[in-house]
Amino acid sequence: RLVGGVEIIMVKTGPLPTKKVVKKRSKHFTRFEFEHYRGRLSASWRRPHGIDCRVRRKFRGNKPMPRCGYGSDKKTKFVLPIGYKKFLVHNAADLEVLLMNNRTFAGELAHNLSAKTRAGLVKRANQIGVRLTNGKARVRAEEKKKEQK
Fold first, then answer.
1. What gap in Å lies between CA 96 and CA 32, rounded to an integer?
2. Which of 95, 124, 137, 145 has the fewest CB atoms lying closer than 10 Å?
């Protein structure tokens, strides 16, 4: 676009270079003995409290328990595989916040936005050069509805 007789071109930039993300553990921690009660116990982690529980007492050969040593590096914590951190976007003002941080954060459109609002935000994000993680979500379904009408 022209500003004061000078043409300004918005260039999409990539994420800032960061150190390699290292996950200390990729498997989920599962609840002790949930495999024996598949229909009645969920696999999600619950800390064992039994007085004789071998997992709580950390006996060799048993399941590991979550602890702070499994935490991620501060610099790479919350970094997505595309190299950005997430920022939840509900409206155009949230997108403007990302304008100054568009190499660190990528916007993620909230799940409860209407198709009309979503389309407007996607268009604005392209104008200001902000990356969206779910910019294509629910767009094709709306296009099909327009074609049918």
1. 47
2. 145
Separation of alpha carbons 141 and 146, rounded Å: 9
Separation CA 17–CA 79 (nearest Å): 11
pLDDT per residue rounded down to tens, the chain (149 residues): 556 666 656 666 788 887 888 889 999 999 999 999 989 999 999 999 999 999 999 999 999 999 999 999 999 999 999 999 999 999 999 999 999 999 999 999 999 999 999 999 999 999 999 999 999 988 776 677 777 77
129, 15 contact by CB (below 8 A): no
Query: Residue 34: which of 24, 25, 44, 26 has the closest Cα?
Result: 44
Please, are residues 143 and 115 in contact by the beta-carbon 8 Å criterion? no
Rounded to a whole number, what is the largest CA-CA distance in the chain?
Answer: 79
Q: What angle in degrees, to the nearest 10, is found between the helix axes of 115-128 and 139-148?
A: 120
* Strand pairing class (6-7; 2-3): antiparallel
Report the helix count and the strand count for the chain, using DSSP H and E.
3, 4
* Cα separation values, 77 from 23, 56, 89, Å: 10, 28, 20
